[in-house]
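User: Could you go from structure to sequence for me? I need the amino acid at each position, not a summary. Structure tokens:
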């Protein structure tokens, strides 16, 4: 069960990371990276960030690139949130494949018709 503080920090990190990824992906045409879920640990030291990447055929490559640049993304996040958070959490990025899962189920259900 998340505390109210964790929920507020989750939303704050999600909003700021969304803006960071929006600025970074403007240079790459046809690529959209959105932050779907942020889960911060109770000690506020680690954050799991789930990303939804479109198109999904480039998802693995982009996720690997994002994971390699996690330190610079954390630095950018620190520049934005330095006045609001005392400790900027370590960022761990994961691929949120729930949209692909939903699409697969829809496709399977429509196949029987």
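Assistant: Here is the amino acid at each position, in order:
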């Amino acid at each position: 069960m998340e505390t109210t503080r964790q929920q507020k920090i989750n939303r704050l990190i999600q909003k700021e990371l969304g803006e960071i990824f929006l600025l970074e992906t403007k240079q790459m045409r046809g690529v959209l990276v959105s932050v779907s879920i942020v889960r911060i640990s109770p000690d506020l030291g680690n954050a799991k960030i789930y990303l939804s990447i479109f198109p999904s055929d480039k998802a693995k490559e982009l996720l690997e690139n994002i994971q390699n640049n996690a330190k610079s993304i954390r630095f950018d996040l620190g520049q934005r949130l330095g006045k609001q958070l005392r400790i900027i959490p370590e960022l761990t990025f994961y691929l949120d494949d729930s949209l692909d899962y939903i699409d697969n189920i829809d496709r399977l259900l429509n196949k029987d018709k």
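One structural detail worth keeping in mind: Residues 4-111 form a domain with the GMP Synthetase; Chain A, domain 3 fold (CATH 3.30.300.20).
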